[in-house]
Amino acid sequence: MAELQGKVALVTGGSRGIGRAIVSALSEADADVAFCYRQNADAAAAVCAEIREETGKNVFSIAADITNPEDRKRLVDEVRERLGAVDVLVNNAGTTDDGLAVRMTDAWERLLDLDLTAPFRLSQLVIPLMLKHSWGRIINIGSIASRVGLPGQVNYSAAKAGLEGMTRSLAQEYGKRGITVNTVNPGFIETDLTEAVDDFVRRYVTEHSSIGRYVTPEAIASTVRFLASNAAWALTGQTINVDGGLVKL
Length: 249
What we know:
Layout: E1 8-12, H1 17-28, E2 32-37, H2 41-55, E3 60-63, H3 69-82, E4 88-91, H4 106-133, E5 136-141, H5 145-148, H6 154-174, E6 179-186, H7 199-208, H8 217-228, E7 239-242
């Protein structure tokens, strides 16, 4: 299927986990895809080689610290020079930095810089490019932590809740100009961020989710692929929980 043929997609944090699955899914949809990574050049190169073999598409990786304003501008400019103006932005890069609220100092600013401010600033950079073609997709990767709140993750829960608010406002501002903005909230997924989850949480997920198991990165990626397509033209300002029915709101 070539539902994204001729479209340029930028995925932040595409060298592993959910990001890698999204890069693959968008490439399979025939988009021209670039992704950024922060440090592991070998992992990024491996992703490019693997996806080229899987899909026949060339994928570009670009080293960038998206919390740095100069790097953000360079990233968007480099994608534009190599592939063209960004049509699809997937704000996937993020992390956790846990701690009790009363003891949290710079972990608050550090996490919000990456998980909330960087997606907003990147959106600011690509929206003018999308407006020129009256078409665009901004897809934010959130978390069900925005809905349930987890102890020790006040910064993470706040950042992901902020993404949902940002999504709704941007959707209102630019919907009539052909740009849709949505958030996808993954549930518990076997990635680097969930390796340290204790047995109690694992049992809770399997016992209380509707499907009784963890969600895969590919399930998130297929949702992103749909939201990026023309078929999702009427979906905007929404938050979709792809969590196996764990959060039933």
